[in-house]
Design brief:
The chain has helices spanning 3-18, 40-57, 72-84, 99-104, 111-115, 130-134, 158-163, 176-189, 206-217, 236-251, 265-274, 286-291, 303-306, 344-354, 357-366, 382-391, 404-419, 425-440; strands at 25-31, 61-67, 91-95, 137-138, 141-142, 144-149, 152-157, 196-197, 231-234, 280-284, 307-310, 312-313, 326-330, 332-337, 395-397, 445-447. Helix 2 links the parallel strand 1 and strand 2 (61-67). Helix 9 packs across helix 17, helix 10 packs across helix 17 (404-419) and helix 17 runs antiparallel to helix 18. It is an alpha/beta fold. It is built from 18 helices and 16 strands. It has a five-stranded mixed β-sheet. The model is unreliable at 1-20 (pLDDT under 50).
Length: 449
């Protein structure tokens, strides 16, 4: 070899060494999370805790986090496309209610089918409550590991309630009329405000169904399905719920009608609460832990002084689901494996590693929340401790049904038709009835009127 070639070879060797180690394989993980943006805590946890610790324990594996900043529905669409073509991340965040429709569409497989029977030997299953495990199960099989659950409530701006002459520290409505009366009092002193935010419309997606429609419907004593597993397509409860929307957004303009129809409507609802335009916001504990902390885009100044919460009342005392005075509903998210991953054993190793106590406690240090594991406590967070202890005994859950996602989309269209003024509650319900029958078949529906 000539001196020139020898010099070139040595240069290439040196450059390779400086470039760092060559990994045996790469793993990709995706979540709707962006450091400094949406679900920042989740992104920080994965990037700064999970990945360094996992790579240290598995030096031949390189993990890449894909930070997705779009809406939930956009990520769902992307995952459906990816999974249908054998593409996409090895591990991804996933909302449990989507599992049945993805499974029936051939887009998800049980964990043991993807990664092998050793999945069932994971010690963490014993630390999950039955309800938590069910969040990521379908027909008795695990499709993912749940990260946590949640509860829903009415967030209040105590400073604005007080301005309207309401005892903000002790305000607890016991009926829908109590909520409307408080909003009317606020509207009197702040005519340009929109005191109530009860999510509606298509743009907000499942946030409309969960943070809006369900919370009202459960207060009538009804659910989306009856006790026989049939979808209720016409009822007094549906009409009462739609008339509540009409009162808030059309008749009395107690809510920001336009925000329900905009693509960024949910973010606008957060801004309205932050800016004091809205004083009564129906939302999940996500709003407290992810949306309003100091440093967040929608951080509420002096949050712990000006922000309070109340239970969601039934339409009238005792009229709620199961005869309850107050209602709420819980969902749950977790992480699943791509059924087409090229590295199933390693992907499972990452997924299970993320859900070990050490990693879960690291997440709690960044963003305290209601966890799926019974052996992980909420550290030093009186708000989440109090709300979870109060509301979890009152909660219910969405149907674990393959058609729920499509039916939920029709619920969103129904509320939008009323809120926009396009249809009356009766007309919107008739349209919903026809649409749901087309989705599930008339034999799987029931009319109570």
């Amino acid at each position: 070899m000539s001196n020139r070639l020898r010099s070139l070879a040595l240069s290439l060797i040196g450059a390779t060494a400086l470039a760092g180690p060559a990994f045996a394989l790469d793993l990709d993980i995706t979540c709707r999370c962006v450091i400094g943006g949406v679900n920042s805590g989740t992104a920080e946890w994965i990037e700064n805790s999970v990945i360094p610790a996992f790579e240290a324990a598995n030096p031949d594996i390189n993990v890449n986090l894909n930070q997705f900043g779009g809406e939930d529905a956009q990520l769902t669409q992307q995952l459906a496309l990816d999974f249908s073509t054998g593409a996409g991340p090895d591990v991804t965040a996933f909302d449990g209610f989507l599992i049945p429709s993805f499974v029936e569409g051939g887009l998800l497989k049980p964990l043991e089918e993807v990664a092998g029977p050793e999945v069932n030997d994971w010690s963490g299953w014993a630390a999950l409550s039955e309800g938590s495990r069910a969040l990521m199960q379908y027909q008795g099989k695990y499709y993912g590991i749940p990260l946590g659950t949640d509860v829903r409530m009415i967030y209040t701006r105590k400073d604005i309630l007080a301005e309207a002459g309401i005892d903000a520290d002790n305000w607890q409505p016991t009926s829908w009329e109590d909520i409307l009366d408080a909003a009317r009092a606020i509207k009197q002193v702040r005519p340009e405000s929109f005191p109530i935010q009860l999510n509606a419309g298509v743009a907000m997606g499942e946030a409309t169904t969960m943070q809006g429609y369900w919370l009202a419907l459960l207060g009538t004593g009804e659910s989306v399905m009856d006790e026989n597993g049939k979808y209720i397509v016409s009822s007094q409860g549906i009409l009462d719920t739609l008339n509540l929307y009409k009162t808030i957004y059309v008749d009395e303009q107690l809510g920001d009608q336009r925000a329900q129809l905009l693509a960024d409507g949910r973010n606008r609802s957060f801004a309205n609460f932050r800016d004091g335009v809205t004083a009564l916001l129906f939302e999940g504990d996500y709003f407290y832990r992810s949306v309003t902390p100091e440093g967040s885009e929608f951080a509420v100044p002096n949050r712990d002084e000006v922000m309070g919460w109340a239970k969601v009342p039934a339409q009238e005392p005792g009229a709620g689901i199961r005869g309850q005075d107050f209602v709420t509903i819980s969902g749950g998210t977790g992480f699943v494996l791509n059924p087409a991953t090229d590295t199933p054993k390693e992907a499972w190793a990452l997924l299970s590693f993320m859900n070990e106590p050490e990693m879960q406690n690291a997440f709690q240090a960044i963003q305290p929340r209601i966890t799926a594991r019974t052996d992980i406590e909420i550290p030093n967070n009186p708000f989440l401790t109090e709300t979870s202890q109060t509301l979890l005994p009152l909660t219910t859950a969405r149907p674990n049904d393959e058609n729920y996602n499509a039916v939920s989309a029709e619920i969103q269209r129904m509320t939008e038709a009323v809120v926009s003024g396009e249809l009356s509650p009766e007309e919107a319900m008739d349209q919903y009835k026809a649409s749901v029958i087309a989705i599930v078949g008339e034999e799987n529906t029931v009319s109570l009127l």
